[in-house]
Amino acid sequence: MFFRRSTRQPAPQQVQGEQAVSASTSMPALELESVSVFTELPEGGHRRILKDVSLQFTAKRTAVLGLNGSGKSTLLGLFNGLTHPDEGIVRVNGVDTLEAPSRDSKGASSRAGSQGAFEGVGMLFAQPEAQLIMPTVAEDIDLSLRRAAAVEGSALSGEQRRERIRELLRERGLEHLENQSVFTLSGGEKQLVALTSVLAARPQILLLDEPTTLLDLRNRARLLKHLESLDQMLVLSTHDLDLAASCDEAVIIHDGRLLAQGDAAQLVQQYRTWCAEGFPNEGADIEDAGDSTDTAGGVHGR
User: Fold this and answer.
1) pLDDT tens for residues 241-293?
2) What is the pTM of this model?
3) How far is the C-alpha of 78 from the C-alpha of 93, rounded, in Å?
4) Nearest to 140 by CA among 54, 199, 99
5) Helices (H), 215-300
6) Which of 77, 227, 281, 288 could form a disulfide with 83, with the two C-beta atoms 3.0–4.6 Å apart?
């Protein structure tokens, strides 16, 4: 099962040098403006993981395509605070993520009555073990409910939370796992429980980092069935080209550069061609590995 694609016509695209920017006039839910991300090298200096990327995500479902190490996961991480830009601006729903209030250790905004830019963003990792941190399924979902309540300034009783947990599990056919240890779940069950925990916080935007990579065919179909039913905006990085082609839009990242953005089915074909015949500027270095430019200390060019 794949996504049912929107019938709307894709927005015209503008390609400027190495950047591809959507020409949609609506306010983008997710936006990068000339963003670069560096990593420090053990021998000193740094290299760029992302280089001067500008893009806007406005489609209901967008696929992020690229080879291993191209920068896909780093790009997604910019929109939920796992990664911070060294240059440029990241906006979520029009809010600069470096100027918005940050979350405290329990997920609550650091300013009373104000939400951080990331509060409406959830993320599902390729390896669900990375985000299933409580002993049982119910306890893990309960943690998400309590964090969401702290952010919203609301409160649910223990009984109300238990009923909500059962409701969320029933929606995904997982009610029999309520009291099961997360360590004894199958790979597919872990992914679906992790998705349920993320959705318990009621995010408006869902980021998915290679969500089908470790799943067998049956569990892949189960996950996609549940994703298809969601109202949230989805942005997913994937090597699953059939899944990518069923999205509304796609972007192609290569060596940290944004090569293209547009209609998903068309870009999947372009990506296949580039994988077979070579990418534009193939082999061009993003950054001299010996560059000793100091990037410690945060954001540049703001």
Assistant:
1) 999 999 999 999 999 999 999 999 999 999 999 999 999 987 654 444 444 34
2) 0.80
3) 13
4) 199
5) 217-228, 241-245, 264-277
6) 77
Span 68-97, pLDDT tens digits:
999 999 999 999 989 999 999 999 988 898
Cα–Cα nearest to 197, from 222, 215, 219, 172: 172
Sign of CA dihedral 32, 145, 2, 233: negative
Q: Give Cβ neighbours of residue 25 (< 8 Å, ≥ 6 apart).
A: none
Round to whole Å and give the CA distance between 257 and 224. Answer: 29
H-helix segments, the chain: 72-77, 137-152, 158-171, 187-200, 217-228, 241-245, 264-277
DSSP string, 117-146: TTTTEEEE-SSGGGT--SSBHHHHHHHHHH
In the block, tokens 């000793």 appear at 292
| Distance between CA atoms of residues 102 and 119, nearest Å | 9
